[in-house]
Write a structure and sequence with these properties.
By secondary structure, this protein is α/β, with parallel strands linked by helices. The protein is globular, with a radius of gyration of 22 Å.
Length: 377
């Protein structure tokens, strides 16, 4: 059986994935990416644990120095975005530019291996009719990570295996215990390795961005207070504003040009849609006509039905059937047909504020429902 490279972070998920593949008779080779210095699963502690797992399983272990690409593609990307009042989503960017693509390249060019695997909770299948490799949600919907994987290429999806896609988290720990893995009882890591390294996202950003104070204002420009840097705020935030006001206020917008944090009541923080750029089409070919799909704009937010409308310039517009709270530029919008991930992209700007009325959408942003797309021929 051809060999397979398993990305090992030092956590229980990747460890269990490696053990499952070896138990199937696969010739498993472990690879750990050295992303940054400091504490955390992607750093020194994780590399030590990954090495221990490889020794325990009797498989090769390679460490790839990826610090330079991580600095450029993730740290610089985050710092630039937050400095401009955007809230980037680093995980999908990291999966595409730092982890999966480079790991597959290393496997092919250095090890002569054409298959990779990770401990992510997702599933892949090939559609014989369309010829595309489709990305599906994991069986465990609470752990499903397909949202963060929307930007993977067809080449990567055709070469990757997700052994845990059909497992629950409890089953994964049971697998680790069954193979007596040293990571079986290892605590859950943070979703973002930068937080583990710096203690909090604010601490990380403060390390790279010099705070520049400015005004906290209402939408009509009334100054309510001062902030110590727009990078310390995010759309939809309520706590920590330091403002005395008759009703709770939420961050509605971060104005990098004016260096202002714009706030308002919760009713003002709902939007009917958004434009999306940097698109990637996964389980379907790029369409030219609108279609209806379930769209998810945050990892922990359930998807809602929306019209997905190609704009013909590499972007598209999302028009929701019910208003969405705190649509955030820089985050990912991902559209599904049931469990099948059709595509995704980066939110450019929120559209259709519900300040005046959240009882129903304007007619022009709620066209007649269309049939969800079938697999592309």
């Amino acid at each position: 059986m051809p060999a397979i490279v398993v990305g090992l972070s030092g956590g229980v998920d990747s460890s269990a994935a490696a053990a499952l593949l070896r138990d199937r008779g696969e010739d498993v080779v472990g690879v750990t990416l050295w992303l940054m210095k400091g504490k955390g699963q992607c750093c020194s502690e994780g590399m030590v644990d990954a090495a221990a797992i490889c020794e325990q399983l009797g498989i090769e272990h390679h460490v790839v120095d990826s610090r330079e690409v991580f600095q450029t593609e993730i740290i610089d990307y985050l710092v630039q975005g937050y400095s401009q009042g955007i809230t980037p989503l680093p995980c999908s960017q990291c999966n595409k530019t730092v982890k999966f693509g480079p790991m597959l390249t290393y496997a092919r060019e250095t090890l002569g291996i054409d298959r990779i695997a990770t401990g992510h909770y997702a599933q892949v299948r090939r559609n014989p009719e369309s010829g595309r490799h489709e990305l599906l949600r994991a069986v465990d919907r609470q752990k499903d990570q397909s949202y963060f994987l929307y930007d993977l290429s067809q080449d990567v999806l055709g070469s990757v295996d997700f052994p845990l896609g059909g497992c629950t988290k409890g089953e994964t720990r049971a697998i680790a215990a069954q193979f007596n893995l040293s990571t079986a009882d290892k605590p859950e890591s943070q979703d973002l390795c930068l937080i583990e390294s710096h203690g909090s996202m604010q601490s990380f950003l403060d390390h790279y961005i010099t705070p520049q104070g400015g005004d906290i204002v209402t939408e009509d420009g009334t100054v309510l207070g001062k902030h110590q840097g727009i990078h310390r705020y995010t759309i939809g935030q309520r706590k920590g504003l330091g403002i005395a006001y008759p009703e709770p206020l939420f961050v509605l917008r971060l104005d990098g040009g004016r260096n202002q944090v714009v706030v308002g009541p919760r009713s003002s923080a709902h939007w009917w849609g958004c434009t999306v750029q940097r698109l990637n089409w996964v389980s379907m070919a790029e369409p030219t006509t609108p279609f209806r799909a379930q769209v998810q704009v945050r990892y922990r937010t359930p998807p809602d039905w929306a019209q997905v409308i190609p704009l013909g310039d590499g972007r598209l517009e999302i028009q929701f059937e019910v208003p969405q709270f705190s649509i955030t530029p820089g985050q990912a919008a991902v559209w599904y047909d049931g469990d099948r991930l059709l595509g995704g992209g980066v939110i450019e700007v929120a559209l259709g504020s519900t300040i005046a009325d959240i009882s129903g959408p304007p007619a022009e942003v709620n066209p007649a429902p269309l049939v969800p797309p079938a697999p592309a021929p």
